[in-house]
From TrEMBL:
The lineage of its organism: Bacteria, Bacillati, Actinomycetota, Actinomycetes, Micromonosporales. GO terms for biological process: phosphorelay signal transduction system; regulation of DNA-templated transcription. This is DNA-binding SARP family transcriptional activator. Residues 1-94 form the OmpR/PhoB-type domain. It comes from Catenuloplanes atrovinosus. InterPro entries: AfsR-DnrI-RedD_regulator, BTAD, OmpR/PhoB-type_DNA-bd, Sig_transdc_resp-reg_C-effctor, TPR-like_helical_dom_sf, WH-like_DNA-bd_sf.
Length: 263
């Protein structure tokens, strides 16, 4: 199998390679069928599911035969051994690891591989693929996981003491995703940790205004609680470096612990 390894990307424009060489797949319905098979690489996708992805609820009378024809054309492009026939569907003979979206989903399961997952993201999922099913079901799942991974990576940068490095990115994210409250929380944290309490409070007001204007709801409990803690300069949200200095100052004032005493 390694001699003709298939790789498929769907995080951005759909592409496919066989044995490292690009294979153009330009027909819209072939691209839809290929994307569907890729999202279940190594497992069977039913003819009914493939038909739904291609036509939605407006199935033609010869949908099964049409799907069979599309698979035949894909085999002509990718190789006859690239797609296997099953009793009620078809299987793409590729490993999940060789489909960027499936590899992305696996990598986002661990904080350790968050950055590797984000490196796979090239743009909107299934860009250039026509399918209400893919864009209505699969794409939102991928985007949600992407936003979660971004939150995690930015939080890691904040915890590492780099609040200034993420400010520009967070301003862009809150502009593009104004209803995604975790990005506002991270922006407020970053500003506060840069010593910009007034700007952090202003960010909260911006979030409040956008939420009210666009969906008519106030900020959620987490955002409101962070606002309260910033307003009162709660020491629990002080920068890690400041927390370390406070611990050092306490140690200097109290002196070393007696031998055998808890530190």
């Amino acid at each position: 199998m390694e001699t003709w390894r298939l790789t498929v990307t769907v995080l951005g424009p759909l592409t496919v390679t066989r044995a490292g060489r690009p294979v153009p797949v330009t027909a819209p319905r072939l691209r839809t069928v290929l994307a569907m098979l890729a999202m279940s690489a190594g497992t069977v996708v039913s003819v009914a599911r493939l038909a739904e992805a291609v036509w939605g609820e407006r199935l033609p009378g010869d949908a099964r035969r049409a799907v069979q024809l599309y698979v035949t054309r894909l085999r002509e492009l990718l190789g006859h051994d690239a797609i296997e026939t099953a009793p009620d569907g078809y299987r793409l003979c590729a490993r999940p690891h060789d489909v960027d979206a499936l590899r992305f989903l696996r990598l986002t399961e661990s904080p350790v591989t968050t950055r590797a997952a984000l490196a796979l993201w090239r743009g909107a999922p299934f860009d250039g693929v026509r399918s209400d099913w893919l864009h209505g079901v699969e794409a939102p799942r991928l985007v949600e996981r992407y936003l979660d991974a971004l939150e995690r990576r930015i939080a890691q940068d904040l915890d590492a003491g780099r609040p200034g490095a993420v400010l520009s990115e967070l301003r862009g994210l809150t502009a593009r995703h104004p209803l995604h409250e975790p990005f506002w929380e991270l922006l407020m944290h970053a500003l506060y940790r840069c010593g910009r309490q007034a700007d952090a409070l202003a960010a909260y007001r911006s979030a409040h205004r956008r939420l009210d204007e666009e969906v008519g709801v106030p900020p959620g409990p987490a955002l409101r609680d962070l606002h309260r803690r910033i307003l009162t300069a709660d020491p629990s949200i002080a920068p890690p470096a400041d927390a370390g200095r406070r611990r050092s100052a306490v140690a200097l004032r109290t002196g070393p612990s007696p031998a055998g005493a808890p530190g």
